[in-house]
Design brief:
- The complex is a heterodimer of chains A (about 350) and B (about 350).
- With about 350 residues, chain A is mostly helical.
- Helices cover about 75% and strands about 0% of the residues of chain A.
- Chain A has a single domain, classed as Orthogonal Bundle (ABC transporter involved in vitamin B12 uptake, BtuC).
- Chain A has 15 helices and no strands.
- The longest helix of chain A is centred in the first third of the chain and has 35 residues.
- Chain A is globular, with a radius of gyration of 20 Å.
- Chain A starts with a helix and ends with a helix.
- Chain B is of the alpha/beta class and about 350 residues long.
- Helix content of chain B is about 45%, strand content about 15%.
- Chain B has 16 helices and 12 strands.
- Chain B is globular.
- Classes of the chains: A mainly alpha (about 350), B alpha/beta (about 350).
- Chains A and B meet through helix 4 and helix 8 of A and helix 11 and helix 12 of B.
Chain lengths: ~350, ~350
């Protein structure tokens, strides 16, 4: 495996970027037009640009816009976090939750619910608590990882340890508080599945700020380039002048901010963080992080927006209500990933 | 001599407690004196046939609604175990605190060993609850009969009536059951006919039910649920009626259906804070919110609306007073908190 093979796909990047951007815009429009009521694309344009449309359409569209933005942002953030985590751990099976942010976030939230059930009505406070919980998980994982050498492998292993401990803790806590949070037919585990059904306008701001901060850190510190060097091993990276420990800590921090913000706002959304980066890599034909960091955000965004639209379509035409977004993403994305894998192995 | 002995035994047995009607007394005495073994065969909600040799004397209830049915049938003195959620009628918590009834765990997590240690003749559980179904084999292995009723799965008056009749049959108190059922029928009929007489021709009010604060997911009650049935019984339109079970809705669906009345199960949250939260969501755009017809139900009112048991007539009356306060007065069961929003005149 030569350097040339790994990083040869750069030429495809401009075209692919353009294509994926067009696809993202198309899926955004699709998402805005489907739901309990169908809105034709020209009316959406009218509403967005000239705000000359019916009062009810405007109301529905504004709500749908919030949902769609949250889906697009969280998809981009999860896939970006996935790219970073897979790079820093050099493990194609790693996803953003491997750093332990998910379980500590849930544990914090469930502990707070148990102590003060009234907190449920303060969405902002809940989001803040979940985010702080995610960052606590990051601190714990990196501390253990640094104690054991600070390499990518130790990061994965300490992440697994933290996840195992705190998912146990959060399940026990949720089990104890289930009479408060679940009535009748709803078992508490359903509450852990991500959904954009109840998101509000300010959630878009939270996600956008987290994404902006992360992107600034990523590009100011030149993380993509450093990760490229890291692909060839810790020794290689340090010979090129990168400090492996610092790189691990900062990359993990950025991934935790990204993943923690989505967990706090939307909940658990599977598959995107794992497969989004792979789809970007395979379609670009390169593992160059300068390319995949950008492309994975687009692929993650598209997949999540489509999955979110499909939950609304299902709700409109069946009697099941909204399916949780977190479980639909895999069903939407997996066939596409399988196609790319098969085609990639032939070409 | 033997006959006298039997007669004395019968006289002191709890079945002949003074509150049972004389007709029951004579019919069962007849059975005993003819010396035929009292074989009672019951077909439960799972379609299983359970045969009893004589009416059971010790019973464990696995659900609040089942406990309520047992007490409504005058079988309270045979109840030896209830769940921690069973709080009605008021003598249940009193008997529990006196140590005359044991708590066998929660609705979701009944404790097998505790149940067995109470040496019940029969355990009555809810057919749709996995934890209850899992108890079947171990209990039957211990020689304890298990009967499943619809319990929390009961979706309408007829399911509740079937549960009442099934339980009555086990204990040979069918006539008490028929009295109770016809009383419930009469009460419900009273409410329904009042509504029908006064509101004929006018449009039906659209109702949204939310199980818990919006920040925890917009869980509603579908058309085949107990609360869904109550809404349609009093002539309301449940906007989640086309769904089954407990669907998740989104704001878009809610706004495009624009409910006239919103009923939110408060689940212990502070009412003022919950009201404030609702005002900060798109729910504030609904007709219900603008006209000050958002009701938070908690404690007894919540139990009445959520439990498919003998308080079904109270549930119907409560929903009627929420939908038509001009006919039935404002709701009288604690706690119903009305969210009143003073709308600023819009330009």
């Amino acid at each position: 495996m030569s350097r040339k093979f790994l990083f040869s796909g750069g030429r495809r990047f401009p075209l692919l970027f353009l294509l994926l951007t067009v696809a993202l815009v198309a899926s955004l429009f699709f998402s805005l037009s489907v739901g309990a009521s169908l809105i034709p694309p020209e009316e959406i344009l009218n509403c967005l640009l000239t705000s000359k449309c019916g009062k009810s359409t405007e109301l529905i569209l504004s709500i749908r816009l919030v949902r769609t933005c949250v889906a697009a942002l969280s998809g981009a953030m999860l896939a970006l976090a996935g790219t970073l985590v897979q790079g820093i751990t050099r493990n194609p099976l790693a996803d953003p939750y491997v750093i332990g942010v998910l379980s500590t976030s849930l544990a914090t939230v469930s502990a707070v619910i148990l102590i003060s059930p009234s907190i449920l009505v303060h969405r902002q406070v809940m989001i803040a608590i979940a985010f702080v919980g995610a960052l606590l998980g990051y601190i714990l994982t990196t501390t253990i990882s640094l104690l054991s050498g600070g390499t990518g492998t130790s990061l994965v292993l300490s992440g697994i340890a933290v996840s195992a401990l705190f998912s146990g803790v959060s399940h026990v806590l949720l089990y104890l508080s289930q009479d408060r949070i679940a009535q009748l037919g709803k078992h508490y585990v359903f509450l852990l599945l991500g959904s954009t059904a109840g998101v509000l306008r300010q959630d878009v701001t939270y996600l956008a700020i987290s994404l902006a901060i992360s992107l600034i850190i990523i590009f100011v510190l030149g993380i993509p380039k450093a990760l490229n060097a890291y692909l060839f091993g810790e020794l290689h990276a340090s010979q090129l002048g990168y400090r492996v420990r610092t790189l691990t800590v900062i990359t993990a921090l950025v991934s935790s901010i990204l993943a923690g913000a989505t967990v706090a706002v939307v909940g658990v959304v599977g598959f995107i963080g794992l497969a989004g980066p792979h789809i970007a890599r395979i379609s670009a034909g390169t593992s160059d992080h300068r390319v995949t960091v950008v492309l994975s955000m687009l692929t993650g965004s598209i997949l999540t927006v489509l999955a979110d639209s499909s939950t609304r379509i299902v709700s409109a035409f069946t009697s099941w209500g909204e399916l949780p977004l977190g479980v639909v993403t895999g069903m939407i994305g997996a066939p596409f990933l399988a196609y790319l894998v098969v085609r990639g192995s032939r070409g | 001599m033997l006959l006298v002995g039997v007669a004395i035994g019968v006289a002191i047995s709890p079945r002949y407690a003074p509150e049972t009607t004389t007709t029951v007394y004579t019919s069962i005495t007849h059975v005993v004196t003819t010396k035929e073994p009292v074989r009672i065969s019951v077909v439960d909600a799972l379609g299983r046939e359970v045969v009893f040799e004589g009416a059971p004397r010790r019973v464990v209830s696995l659900a609040p609604s089942i406990t309520e049915i047992l007490f409504a049938l005058g079988l309270g003195d045979r109840v030896v175990g209830v769940t921690s959620f069973c709080n009605y009628p008021p003598e249940v918590p009193k008997l529990v605190s006196e140590g005359r009834i044991s708590v066998i765990g929660g609705f979701w997590n009944p404790d097998l060993e505790k149940i067995v240690s109470l040496r019940p003749d029969v355990v009555i559980g809810s057919a749709g609850t996995r934890a209850h179904l899992q108890l079947k084999d171990p209990l039957e292995g211990a020689g304890i009969k298990v009967v499943y009723v619809y319990g929390n799965e009961a979706g309408n008056f007829y399911d509740v009536v079937r549960d009442i009749r099934t339980i009555a049959k086990i204990f040979g108190v069918e006539e008490t059951a028929e009295k109770l059922v016809s009383e419930l029928e009469r009460e419900i009929e009273n409410v329904v006919s009042t509504i029908a007489n006064t509101t004929s021709g006018s449009t039906k009010p659209k109702v949204l039910v939310l199980l818990g604060p919006p920040s925890f997911g917009l869980y509603s009650a579908g058309g085949n649920t107990f609360i869904g049935w109550i809404i349609s019984a009093v002539g309301g339109i449940n906007i989640a009626g086309k769904f089954s079970g407990w669907p998740i809705l989104d704001y878009e669906y809610i706004l495009s259906n624009n409910p006239d009345i919103i009923v939110v199960s408060a689940m212990g949250a502070s009412y003022a804070e919950l009201a404030e939260e609702i005002g900060a969501t798109p729910l504030a755009e609904t007709k219900a919110y603008r006209e000050g017809r958002v009701y938070l139900v908690d404690q007894e009112a919540n139990d009445v609306l959520m439990r498919p048991g003998p308080r079904i007539a109270s549930a119907v009356r409560l929903m009627a007073s929420i939908l038509y306060p001009e006919l039935f007065g404002e709701p009288k069961i604690p706690v119903v908190y009305k969210v009143v929003e003073f709308v600023k005149p819009s330009g």
